[in-house]
Amino acid sequence: MTTTRYLSILAGCVAMAGAIEVCAEGYTLIPLGIVGASPLGVSESGANALNSRGQVAGYSTTPGGTLAVLWDTVAGLRVLGDLPGGRSESRAMDINDRAEVAGFATSANGMQAFLWTEADGMLGLGDLPGGRFQSVANGINVRNEVVGYSLSGAGTEAFVWNAADGMRALADVAGGRVMGQAKAINNAGQIVGYGSPARGTEATLWSNQGCLQSLGDLAGGPVGAAALNINEVGTVVGYGRTGAGTLAMRWDAQSGMVPLGDLPGGGTSGQALAVNSLNQVVGWSEDASGSQAFIWDADGGMRALKDLITDGSASGWTLLTANDINPKGWIVGQGLNEQSQKEAFLLVPQALSSGSRP
Fold it and tell me: Looking at CB atoms within 10 Å, which of 80, 233, 241, 333 has the fewest?
């Protein structure tokens, strides 16, 4: 599908979503395209995040390398570029509702976390003191607080960055190696990620005061869990280890950590990657054919997204992973297209109340 066709469909979806209630009884798949072929002959794109306005952050190969991109109904597909002195390697990892993007890019110093804004373009965020120059931004909220990880003199540390204070290391899990990541931050300033205790990994939640809380493990499983995303009311998703593998999990203060199950026919392997304000969870899980994108909610449990696209728009596609879901229920991820290339996709819920379709 061309970018023009994508924009036409998505613009219609934006208008439709604002006018009627959208029911997620099925989805329409919109391919987001690939900028161009890479120098090695491998073409792919990926969608990592989207905001409530339907703007999507990710990456795409170009003739010069892999670059961070922003898909937008107004501006189209935009390459965000690279930091000065870099070698055309960047990825956009998250986007807030003001269309400000966080990610990482090469620079003259090394790999560096960035913040991109319409006004100022791509700004390098530096790194923590004492380490080999390398930092990555994974998440951003509406207050332009950015989280990720950076090498430091102590090891690999989770960080939070803002314009006033710069990059600051977050508290680390006690008793193990200094090896942690911050994966996401909500608008209240709660941060999730993981650390490395004496054994395995530990899912962690940092409050907006920086206090560290361990989220525990799945009942009956070995030590090992990671928190990968958080919604605005503090519900956390990620994965936890079991005796047979890993399972997508959900955590909240009332219920603790609970498994979300897995898809039929596959091995015990999966991760929950995002959760919206309706407590709809998306991610990937294995079935008999391999990795499949899923959606989970309390009523329907875990379902493969491929089974919910009934209009033929996903014909020839394999949906490998669902990476984000916004408050309208729109989903982005990566799949194999009809040419077996890895391509970013957007799923828009079909509107049942008006009889029209995106």
Answer: 233
